[in-house]
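User: Good morning. I'm curious how adenosine-5'-diphosphate would be positioned relative to this chain. Could you predict the structure with it bound?
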Amino acid sequence: MAKPTVPLKRIVVTALAVAAPGLVTLVALAALGILSPKWLALGAVLCAVLGWVVASILVGDLTAVAAYGDALSRHPDATEPDLTGWDPATNLASLIRRFSREARRREQMLRDGMNARQMVFDGLPQPLILLDDSQKILNINRATRELIGNPPPGSDLSAAIRDPRVLQMVQDTLDKGEPNATHLTISDPVERYFSIQAVPLEPHEGDGAALLIALFDLTERRRAEQMRSDFIANVSHELRTPLASLIGFIETLQGAAKDDEEARERFLALMADQAGRMGRLVQDLLSLSAIELVEHTRPEDHVDLAATLGSVIAGLQLEAEAKDMVIRREIDPDLPMVLGNGDQLAQLLLNLIDNAIKYGRAGTPVTVALRFEREIPVPLADAAALAAVSGVVRIEVRDQGEGIAAEYIPRLTERFYRVDTARSRAIGGTGLGLAIVKHIVAHHRGLLEIKSTLGEGSTFSVALLAAPQEKRPE
Ligand code: ADP
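Assistant: Good morning! Here's the predicted structure, ligand included:
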């Protein structure tokens, strides 16, 4: 390190201070006549020279040590000072060096700690906002930024959340020092519903944080609650209609038509029809909940779909004949087994073929194709890799009905959704057939696709993982 320039004045003053006691003693000795003027002059010169030498070392080294301390405060690798070797100055320099290193180490630890805290805060999946006591934003984490954008630090909370209820709740929390909560709806880009909670923080020195806001996303829970209540309302409605007509027939048979033989026969047939409808609904509801119960595990039996299809078609033969329809089969000769649950796959085929008969035009054929495909559809790739399968078996059920308009197709698998409710009810539909199909397909980690052309007909296509083929013994 270049030697700092030492002001001459400081050396002179120090030299005088060093030489003063000697000079005073010499003058006193001369005054007492002990020292001749010649020796006084010699002694004075010696004192002055000695004072000058000591002062230059003292002032020079101390100035260099001070400059070193100053340089260290700005740069950790400041070059050490070039000292004369005077011990106190050398010790002082190394003391300053040690203090400086320790200070830097602690500063680094503090910075690491703050970075770690910021990383945890930022990485938490729950949206969090840190405010000071005047509702200014000190920090917001990534989850919050994704939700409300990126208000610059120091901006007011009202710039990010405009809901006056939330701002009032935050102010109340700051005023009373007690946790508080309210609700917040965010509509952009899709509507989401949150519980927003404010927790006052212990007063502390530092960043001035006074309050932590946490948002809890209740959208899914709300949606599930809504679905559950819609479902109950739908089921009650579906059951009430046939029940009401049953009650009506019973009252008529007990009253006006009591002795009317012909009316009794007719009403009993209608009653059997309504009771059958209620029975089918209950049966479908039970199937749906049974599938939902096991939906998280993939079924692993090896199912012979061609054989299953044979028995399903046999069961539907009468229904098809009643509409003058034939059910055609197109089955690959070497169709492999599929990984699945036999009963559920029978139900899937039944629901799809039953719909094709119900919604197909009388006198037209219904075609059911079973094909092996080596190419695994992208959405099934992960499940296929897990099960080590080499392809899929595709089921295709085609009818020549009126078809379904494109806008209805995405909703067909919702429970109780029908394109034409009256028609569905009139032909004995429960509105649950395709919802059951969707759940069976999901349980099998398969893929359901619906294609339809108005006036021409519809094709319901299901891809299922083929069972891995056993190697034949060599
Ligand atoms: P539903 O008991 O009413 O048949 P589904 O869940 O099986 O209930 O089907 C839902 C709706 O999808 C039906 O009401 C009907 O509007 C429509 N749909 C299903 N299959 C077909 C098809 N093959 N052709 C035309 N529309 C169909």
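The longest helix spans residues 37-74. The CA atoms of residues 36 and 370 lie 134 Å apart.
Let me know if you'd like a different ligand tried.
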